[in-house]
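[Automated response] Your request has been received and processed.

Submitted sequence:
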Amino acid sequence: MSQQRRQLDSGRPRLAPWGDAGGAAEHPRALRLRHGTLCLPAFLPDATQAVVRSLDSVDLERCGIEALVMNTFHLMQRPGSSTIAALGGLHRMAGWQRPIVTDSGGFQAYSLIHENQKFGRISDKGIVVRPAGAAREFSLTPEKSVQLQLGYGADIVMCLDDCTHVDYEDAVQEAAVARTVAWARRCKAEFERIVVQKRLTPAERPLLFAVVQGGNSPELRRRCAEELLDIGFDGYGFGGWPLDGQGRLLTDIIAFTRSLIPDRFPMHALGVGHPENVVACARLGYAVFDSAMPTRDARHGRLYAFATAPADPAGGLDGDWLRFVYINDDKYIKDDAPIAPGCACPTCARYSRGYLHHLFKIGDSLFLRLATMHNLSFMAELMARLRRPGASPWGAGEAESGE
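Generated structure:
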C-alpha cells in the first residue's frame, strides 16, 4: 500500500481536530461543510425521499438536528432528477439549509436484488433495478451515482458499493469487496472530473466517502479498507448489515473495521440508529450515524427517555441509562406528566403522556409529529452527551488544535 497516497490532500477531509497541539489525538470534532459545520458525533435522521415523515425543516431545527440523509436510489425515481433540478436542488426543494448526506443506493440494491433477483441485477458495470410497480427499469452506475449526488447539491457524497449481509458465503463477500473497490475508484475519478469541470473551490467541494465491505471476515475487511485508503477518500463508512440474525450489534467486526482506518478520517456507521448501538459505536470511534429507527419507533408509539440525570458530567450513559415509553399502554390514559421529565424538547415542554396517548388511540396525525419531534430531540441530546469529556473518544476534553 502506498503510504504517500494516504497523505494526499485529496484524501483529507476539512476537519476541526481535537487533541493537543502535537496532534497526538486526531479524532475530528466537526466537519466543515458547504451548508454548515457538522459537530461530531452526529445522528442524521433518514429523510429518504427528501422528507422526515410528519416534520418540516423548522421542526427539525427545533429538535437540534444538524444534518439529514437523503437517498439517491429513491430520489432518482421520485420526484426525479429533472424535477429536483427545477426546484433548485435538495436544499431549496426541502427548505433545509443545513448539511445533507446522500446515500448512494447500494443498500437499496442489496435489499431489492439480493433478496429477490426478479427486481434487478448487479454487474461490474453497475446496478439495474425495476422496483415493484415501477413502469421502467432504473440504471445506477458509479459514475451516475456521483453525478446525481453532486447535481442534488449534497454536502457528503457516498460511493456506490456492493452491500452484503454478514451471513453470505465467502465467495459472495469476496466478489462484493472487489466490486466495491472498483466502483469506489470509478466514483472518485468521476467526482474529481466534475469538481475540475465546475471549478469548485475547496470550500465549495463536497466530501467524498467510500464504504468498507467484507461481511464478517477480518481478512476481507482489511483488504477492502487498505485498497480504499490507497485510493484516498475524505471519510469512510462501515458497509453491510450491522446486526446479526438475533438483532445484536456486530461489535467485534465493527470495532475491527474502525481500527483499520486512521483516526483522522471520520467513519459513518451506516444504518446504526438504536440508541444503545449508537453509544457503543461512538465509543469505538465512529462519528456519524443514520437510521430510520428513531422516527419509525416514534410513529409506532415507542418513545425514548433517559433514565439518568442530565447533569451527569460523563453523560450518564453507563448502566441502564435508556428506557422506553410505550405510549399505547393504558397506564398513561390520565398521566399528566411529560414523556420524559426534564426533557426540553418542544413536545415535552407543552404536552402530557395522557394527551399523546389520546392522540395515538384516535390515530390523529398530530401524534406522529409530536412523537417524532421527541425522539429526534432525544437523539440530538444523546449526541450532546457523547461530546462530554469522558463519555466517548469524541468528548471535548482537550482544546482544539490549529482552529
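Summary generated for your ticket: Confidence is low (pLDDT under 50) at residues 1-11, 17-24, 397-403. Residues 170-197 form the longest helix (28 residues).
If you did not submit this request, please reply to this message.
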